[in-house]
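B., you asked whether I could sanity-check this one before it goes into the benchmark set. Here's the sequence:
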Amino acid sequence: MKQIYLHIGHGKTGTSAFQALMAQSQKMLLSAGILYKEHPSFSNAIRSRISSGNIDPSDTNDWFDTQVLATVRNNQNYDKYVFSCENAFHYMDSVYAALDNSKDNFNLHVILAVRNPGDMLSSEYHQLVKRDGLFISYEAFLERTSYRCKHAFRALEIIEQLESKEISFSLLNFSNLGYAITRRISEIIGIDTLVDTHRFTTMRVNRSMSVSELQALVLVNRLYGKFAGTKLSDALVNSLPDIDSDPLLPSASSSKKIADEMKPIIHAINRRLPLSSPLVVTSDVEIESNLICPLDDSQVAIIKGAISELSQSEDRAWRAKRSSFLMKTANKILEKESLGVRVAFRLMKLAQHLQPSSQPIREKTRRLRRMIRR
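And here's what the prediction gave me:
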């Protein structure tokens, strides 16, 4: 019987690191009868960069049948099939429907990663600043969530569904395991002796932000919006993967509200976790930082205008330098080559494109055009 492993979980629970391990080990795993199929972000995973896994559960309502089971049906030469995507955490109904209706013969084992609710709220704030253009303070974000970690509630829902449907699963606490979670997942799948997990116990893939970076992103989001902030965060994460990230500590009053809201959920999840690795409200490593960007619209306009003017000034200087070089090159061609008029004309057209208001460049271009027409 075919064995399917489905790896899902909270955001920021080492999923990108595991996906990097699988992508980089794919050929060796294939020879061992284990399929981890390629996907659009496969090249990112190979380079240990941000990836989205090898399925897209948001694509269709029947993704488990059309992506997971279809892969098994079309690739019968393997014994194990591994699928990883943290986003599947939000689309599990497709799994339950497929198990109820499918005639395929397979075993399914779900690997679900969870983390401390306080840690997850901090991580969610990081992610919203990085990907969604958020620029409100952490305290304002916590108030918006009603001090409830939706991922923990969702995790308990999934656990109860898996238990009721008698679906085999492993529950892992990332807050306890840290980056060793990659090796633990490999042990569950049975590939820990085949792949090199050692370097992934220290390697950061898709890290969170430092406080300084987060403050810069908050400002960029406020000034330029989501697209600019996302571009900046990706550049920081991919270019500087080893910078330490800084989880955020709520105020004392917010911490108490989180604890009051989350204790029943933590207790319920802990009944399924080993006694040695329980969830707690929050880890002890957070630092206090209430990021905020209190700029009104007039301040934003002035700052954007100043930055834009500086950028345009640098751009004008670059264009002037390049057009001057093109003009000098055109003159040298005309001096040394009697047949170089057309080449010189093309160079002058480029110079005119760079500096369309330059009178000397316009006149030179006109003279060369007349020479060509003779």
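One thing to flag: The chain has two domains: 2-288, 299-373. Otherwise nothing jumped out at me.
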